[in-house]
Write a structure and sequence with these properties.
It is a single chain. The chain is mainly β and 696 residues long. Helices cover 8% and strands 42% of the residues. The longest helix has 22 residues. The chain is elongated, with a radius of gyration of 46 Å.
């Protein structure tokens, strides 16, 4: 039997259901062939997934038949894998048969073929190489974690470090001016060797033997001439297999426009890109400010605070610039009182288009600290959702403790309206919720505030006008507030002046609607529903559940302790309150000499009980420009008319207690004569105590 010169290996791409695969080399036994299906070794046998062999001992080969048909595209590999062993022994004076000798010699040749087939699949030096080469690879300990390389001189295999393998990624230029003495010039990156550089002096290419590179320093053998122009071009190198984001293309689904990943990622700037840690202890202010400036430098974008298990601690103000969208997935927390503006976030003066998406701000009870300050002359400021908490006032120190402080902006004709919009914010455990400003030379207009919730806030709303030009017109101060709910608010916790649900110091042109506050007995009474002076302030559908010291207190709330009568008027305003609780003093309380200081103000107040039992302080009794409609639920009595008619001397109890004046008490001034109109329990209509009619 002969042995043909055939490669002991065949490979096929199967068709669907194919079972028979020829092998074209001789095998001495059925077990001398191996079958791989997609790299998986199959077993010989009659079961599913196994195979049978025919043609054993035939020099042209035979067939391998799969029990289970292959799937289309399967890779079927057949190769000889016989054991290197001798199975025949010759004895003295024994038979020396041709068949035995042929079979024995055939196995030798088959083994040589098999070995040659294996050698064909390994690295091997060509015959043209010198005999001095050594193709032995390094030992295991030397080659661990390395790649195979060949020596630059001998060509022998050796272990190479991946750190030394680079590929080109881009070109960077660096320019210098020679002074005739300096030979060392520091580049902005490490080239990785002279071969990754091109150097020109006054436009003339420099040979690489005239300089060397060590790290990021390029050193000339001779200093370039004085005032010569030096240009160094560095090929940016990366480890083999690596790439940069600018080299990876990106196409949005449904779009035909291709960009690269770097441009896509730059749409959002993460504070962690600039080194913010977010452990609640490290001061991340510098890193965050660098990230905010990067957003501005690229023309705007999103400043992202990724979610963190702690918070981003800061000991400085975070300055925001034009066209910045702030997204907080993690909390930003004050860990110190550093900075100029005493705030967590503050915009650069005159900035435009700053948008907060769910800010998560913790002032951490740092004294005098504010959550967000919108500085003067900024426009298009928006806060959408989020939580601001722990804004604490510093008694006798710097003003602050405001969750949202919307400063006034000068020169409205030049800068336009602030156009501030705040919606969906929750304010917790703070001195002041939202501070609104305005007035001549501090113009602020167009602020819309809605869907606000507050809890444990001393002064939910503070209005600040300017002394110049008060009362202010709508161009210099105008705001709208709606849909507000709060619990346990309006009581001063640390500040010497009394708090209230709304405090005003020359506030003008503000509309409040759909406002609901409630206080628990444990929290206690609010000082007042409204405290301060007012011009064109209107309140609609304002409901308060809980006790109160006053309903309305006129004039003079200021940030520094001062007499309640500060010298500013209240005018052209209306207050519509529903109060479910007890007011311990007058419903409307103002200081002395107010006849000319409160003009065209209308009160529509419904309340439960009154400890004092009087509608207002005596100083309003002669004021014909204050109109009241006050209903007391406990006494089921109502007083309607001008303050000069609804006299301070009347009480709701006295009205209800008189036999002739049991339930409804209305006063009108007709031609200078007061008329007291009541209805008795018997259905009698009385004017000044005289029955003029009977209910039918």
């Amino acid at each position: 039997m002969t042995v043909l010169d055939n490669a002991p290996r065949d490979q096929y791409t199967a068709t669907g259901g194919q079972t028979v695969f020829p092998y074209t080399f001789e095998i001495a036994a059925a077990g001398d062939i191996k079958v791989l299906q997609n790299g998986t070794l199959l077993n010989q046998g009659a079961g599913a997934g196994e195979y049978a062999v025919s043609g054993v001992g035939v020099d042209t080969g035979g067939n391998v038949t799969l029990v289970t048909g292959a799937t289309s595209g399967d890779i079927i590999t057949l190769y000889r894998d016989m054991a290197y062993e001798r199975l025949t022994a010759y004895t003295n004076a024994g038979d020396f048969l041709a068949a035995d000798v042929n079979n024995d010699f055939d196995r030798l040749w088959l083994a040589l073929q098999q070995n040659g087939g294996d050698l064909d699949r390994v690295l091997i030096a060509p015959n043209t190489d010198p005999t001095s080469i050594n193709m032995t690879i390094p030992d295991k300990a030397t080659r661990l974690g390395k790649y195979l390389k060949f020596n630059d001189t001998t060509g022998n295999p050796e272990a190479g470090s991946i750190a030394g393998a680079f590929t080109a990624a881009g070109m960077n230029n660096y320019n210098f001016t020679g002074d005739g003495t300096t030979v060392n010039f520091t580049l902005g990156m490490e080239p990785g060797g002279e071969n990754n550089t091109q150097v020109y002096i006054d436009g003339v290419y420099q040979q690489k033997d005239g300089y060397n590179v060590s790290g990021a320093v390029l050193q000339f053998s001779v200093a370039p001439p004085n005032l010569s122009t030096i240009e160094v071009m560095v090929i940016q190198v990366l480890p083999v297999g690596a790439t940069t984001a600018s080299q990876v293309s990106f196409t949005q689904a449904g779009s035909a426009t291709a960009r690269n990943v770097q441009l896509k990622l730059q749409e959002t700037v993460s504070v962690k890109d600039f080194g913010a840690v977010g452990d609640g202890v490290t001061d991340d202010a510098a890193a965050i400010n660098a990230a905010a400036l990067a957003v501005y430098n690229q023309g705007g974008g999103t400043l992202l605070f990724p979610k963190t298990t702690a918070s981003y601690g800061i000991n400085d103000d975070i300055i925001l610039w034009d066209n910045t969208r702030v997204v907080c997935e993690g909390w930003v927390k004050r860990i110190g009182t550093g900075g100029v503006y005493d705030a967590v976030f503050v915009n650069q003066a005159g900035a435009d288009n700053i948008y907060f998406e769910t800010p998560l701000i913790d002032c951490n009870n740092q004294l005098g600290m504010n959550g967000i300050i919108f500085r003067r002359n900024g426009t298009n400021m928006v806060v959408n959702g989020g939580i601001i908490k722990n804004c604490k006032h510093e008694v006798g120190g710097k003003l602050g403790g405001r969750a949202l402080n919307i400063e006034a902006g000068a020169n409205i004709a030049e800068n336009g309206l602030k156009a501030t919009r705040i919606t969906g914010v929750s304010i917790i455990d703070s001195y002041n919720g939202i501070a609104l400003s305005g007035g001549d030379n501090q113009e602020e207009a167009g602020c819309v505030i809605s869907n606000i919730s507050m809890e444990n806030v001393d002064i939910p709303f503070a209005l600040f006008g300017n002394s110049a030009g008060y009362p202010h017109d709508g161009d210099s101060m105008s705001h709208m507030v709606s849909n507000v709910v709060g619990i346990n608010c309006g009581k001063s916790s640390v500040y010497p002046n009394a708090a209230a649900l709304i405090c005003s110091d020359r506030g003008s042109n503000v509309m409040f609607s759909n406002v609901y506050f409630s206080n628990t007995a444990a929290y206690g009474a609010t000082n007042a529903l409204y405290y301060g002076d007012a011009h064109n302030i209107h309140m609609r559908n304002f409901i308060y559940d809980g006790d109160s010291v006053y309903g309305y207190v006129g004039f003079g709330w200021q940030e520094t302790p001062s007499p309640i009568d500060s010298g500013y008027n209240s005018s052209d305003s209306s207050f519509d309150f529903v109060h479910n609780g007890n007011i311990s003093t007058d419903i409307i309380s103002v200081s002395s000499a107010t006849t000319t200081r409160i003009q065209n103000v209308f009160f529509n107040i419904k309340t439960n009980t009154l400890t004092n039992d009087r509608p207002f302080t005596s100083s309003l009794s002669g004021n014909a420009n204050v109109h009241v409609n006050i209903f007391n639920k406990a006494q089921n009595a109502e007083m309607i008319g001008r303050a000069s008619e609804v006299n301070h001397a009347y009480t709701f109890t006295s009205i209800a207690g008189k036999t002739a004046y049991p339930r409804i008490f209305t006063l009108f001034d007709v031609n200078g004569v007061d008329y007291d109109i009541t209805v008795s329990t018997a259905g009698k209509l009385l004017i000044n105590g005289t029955v003029v009619g009977t209910q039918t």
